[in-house]
Structure formats: structure tokens, C-alpha cells
Specification:
Blueprint: E1 2-7, E2 10-13, E3 18-26, E4 33-39, E5 46-51, E6 58-60, E7 68-73, E8 78-83, E9 92-99, E10 110-111, E11 115-120
Parallel strand pairs: 2-11
Antiparallel strand pairs: 1-3, 3-8, 4-5, 4-9, 5-6, 7-8, 9-10, 9-11
Length: about 120
């Protein structure tokens, strides 16, 4: 089992920044690709970005457009989502997820409980 706990959400003004953290415990953190997804009210959960097990590669949804960065620290079993130039439409619950190779992000092996991000205009 892997337990994932997000932190760092909150209220921020448009144009501001937040950094989310997701701390993992349990089985070997470095065995999993790590990703971030979000779900806004009334919308489906959407993929934001992910990072490979070693941290050597990252990939992002088009809407990120260079505003968000995923990183990880395997020594701390933590993955991060740095969010800059936030917009009101970024308001959502943000989730981290752990997925083994070949597992789609829509059905990862493990989910965190989510953290609320609210961007005011």
C-alpha cells in the first residue's frame, strides 16, 4: 500500500503562485510514476502533469502552457506541483496519484485525498 497526502492548497489571488506537496509513505516511492490531476465543480477530473520514477522526464496537459511544474524528491518521498500565474479557472481540488508503468492516469494505483485550490479574481 502507498498512502499519499497532499498539502499546500489554499486561497490565492489571480496571478499568484502556490506549491502543492504530496508526501508518500508505504511501498517504495521511486517505483511509481507520480502525477497530478484536478477536478473542478461540475467537471470531470483532468490530468495536469506527471513525472517519471527517476524524475528524468515530465509531461503536461496542453492547458498548463508552462505555468505549472512537476518535480519530485525521491529521498523525501515527495512530489511537488509548482503553480504560477494562477487563473480563476484553476480553482479545483488537486489530487496527486501514483501509477506503475503502463497504468493510465485515469486509473492510477493510488490517489491522495485532494487539496482545495481557490483562485480569486
Amino acid at each position: 500500500q502507498v498512502q499519499l497526502v497532499e498539502s499546500g492548497g489554499g486561497l490565492v489571488q489571480a496571478g499568484g503562485s502556490l506549491r502543492l506537496s504530496c508526501a508518500a509513505s508505504g511501498r517504495t516511492f521511486s517505483s511509481y510514476n507520480m502525477g497530478w490531476l484536478r477536478q473542478a465543480p461540475g467537471k470531470e477530473r483532468e490530468f495536469i502533469g506527471a513525472i517519471t520514477r527517476s524524475g528524468g522526464s515530465t509531461y503536461y496537459a496542453d492547458f498548463v502552457k508552462g505555468r505549472f511544474t512537476v518535480s519530485r524528491d525521491n529521498a523525501k518521498s515527495t512530489v511537488y506541483l509548482q503553480m504560477n500565474s494562477l487563473k480563476p479557472e484553476d480553482t479545483a481540488v488537486y489530487y496527486c496519484a501514483a501509477a506503475s508503468s503502463g497504468t493510465p492516469w485515469g486509473r492510477p494505483n493510488y490517489w491522495g485525498q485532494g487539496t482545495q485550490v481557490t483562485v480569486s479574481s
